[in-house]
Predict the 3D structure of the following.
Amino acid sequence: MDKEKFNELCHDLAPRSDHTLTEAILKEVSSFQAGEQNKRLPVIWIETSDSGDNNIAFLNSTYPYAGQVFTDMIDLLYCNSFMTAQGKHALNILEQAAVMLKGQFTLVVEGAIPLKDNGLYNIIIRTENRNITALEAVNWLGNLAKYVVAMGTCASFGGVSSAKPNITGSVAVRQVLNREIINVSGCPVNPDWFVGTLAHLLMYGRPELDELGRPTLFYGYTVHRHCQRRSYFDKGDFAENLGDIECMFSQGCMGPRTGADCPYRQWINYVNWPVRANTPCIGCTNEDFPDGSTPFFTPISEKGSNKDKETNKWRKRE
Amino acid sequence: MAKKRVMFSPVTRLEGLLSVEVTLDGDRVVNANASSTTFRGFEWIMRDRHVTDAVYMTQRICGICSTAHGAVASYLLDELYDNTLSENAQLMRNIMYASDIIQNHIRHFYLFGLPDYVRMPQRPPFHGQNLSDARLNPKDDQRLLENYFEAIKVSQKSHEILALFGGKAPHQHSFVHGGVSVAPTADKINRALALAKTVREFVKGKLVPDTELIARAYSDYYQIGVTEGQFLSFGLFRFGPKNERLLLKNGVQKGNRLIPLDIGLINEDITNSWFSTAFEQGSKGKELIPNPYKPGAYTWSKSVTYGGQHYEVGPLARMIINGKHRGGASTMDRIYARTLETVHFTQLMEDWLKRLKPGPAPIEQKKTPVKNKVVATTDAMRGALLHSAWIEDEQVVRYNIITPSVWNFSPKDEYGRLGPTEGALVGTVVPRQEMLFNVLGRIIRSFDPCLQCATHVLDMRGNVKKERLI
């Protein structure tokens, strides 16, 4: 309703001594409040095969705190960790939300999806008659969602859940769904990367993604590029042990081939990050984490997956 | 009246995925099957890796108790490499460990437990509550709801202490074998003290009165969800150059008797678990293999016993074994003991911070293993946690993990005996049908379930008898 029409309405109805005016205005006010002003992102969040570290990492968000995210940013319709409803009531909510908000909701998948044995290594809900596996749920909800966000490295790339020998046949969300997935990797995800991605979806739509489907905003540069210890590296001044203040390359640091903004963003209210704690970055946002990073304390060129590869390849990627 | 089976799934507000099927005879629960429904196979993942990867790898078992896995893996490696720990290293380790436990306990009480007792607003993520016997007055409901939001901020502060010394959280980086890689400096100690004070003020000013309020309003839960009252703890907070001193003692409590712990008496059973045994080609003996189609089985958790009996583990076990709580083994005892422990640990954490001496990073890692088989234990947030490793040339041959939730969420063993949670559910009377999920949910959540952990227990022979532990 425009201002002119609103004034007209007030003028016409003001002389009445009953509540007609209040009723008429209240309707407008409610619809205004429910509109653009209070737009929240509808989210269905399913936990699959992971360690739960990503939902704990999310709780470490500061400004907005997780409580503010619940209140001001998203309508968290289904989430095994945080929803109050339980049992069949929770399942009913999930089924209704999937139908009513088809094409509108954002699906967050937290974890990898086991494929072996029809996905029976991860059952997200059971009823008296059947099992709903992560595989089934991701297929079902992933095709109804407006956006699909893979939260953490297990969901993005398989991660620890698919580490060798991967006896559960676990894979990333992108290997289950034939559509665009926004991968917000990390083990765990930095809450800023996750909340920041949701904020982008809410305020500006789809963020720009790199070749691995990750928002370039967070993963666009290597850890190495922004590392506070880069000057030590350039001078060839390497740490001899964990706990030293020099470059951690010698201690197995994966910074040179890990896209993430940890050095300047840091963690948990921005107080620290692994290299600042005198330990190596273990490349937890990478497509080949953890197998490409282990042994964790061995220099890149001697790590498992790199033994056969051309050494110093990381220099070109930086 | 005919018996009726009801599936309670998903059991929300916990870590991991849990379904519980109960059989009702009239208003009474006569059977309960607790199903842990994720399997990741961590013991396989650990094989053929460098053993020093264990601290970072095993933290990825669980996001809410990652420091516990990092701690026990560090103890294991300390023994394997014969490291000597300084006083500062132990203080910093225990500060980090306590901060993670406090984080867990605050989040458990408010984010997971509170909606079982307090009316939440009808908006996401609180919609569909169906709290059929809400007993607090609207003013108290409102106050506790506000504390829910404050708890989110305060638990973050506790994790900030962990990150300050540990690099990040979850999955800290500095608490590794040989000590701690971060230097305790005046600025960090001071900042951590300020954070710890904020946490303590919340714990004393909010968590304690809120627990007491709920315990009064729902005092019948001192008689509901009762286990057999047999408790086990591996002890908590190690000190001494060889991790030899435990601040909270270990032991086994049966009635009024505290019996010394002998880990050789631990046994695991797969009767009702989705595992079979087989001789695998090229393997080192008989192996367990996952078998999701096994008839009659209903969970990925194994059944773990001590001396042939099931034991409850967790904060209540610790507080009883250490003489800090006298009471029963009920739903409300578990909730109360967890809060009691939180108060105790916030005080300890501040004391330790004050005892830290500024200096270099207290770490010295030896490079050559002096053993090839080792077992390490601690109590985690939820109770007894064991890691064991068998290595050859620093490579893992076998790595075994027994987590707390496996004790509490043990399925029935070969003799049909019930584990603590199933036992606490059986016999429960549900006065009105619409209260079923409320009553079951309260009992189950009082154990602070973490099924991510429960999914990883596996050793190659299905038992941990001493001579075959690893």
Q: What stands out?
A: Chain A touches chain B through 82 residues (CB under 8 Å). Chain A has two domains: 38-219, 221-318. Residues 38-219 of chain A form a domain with the Rossmann fold fold (CATH 3.40.50.700). The first strand of chain A starts at residue 41 and ends at 47.
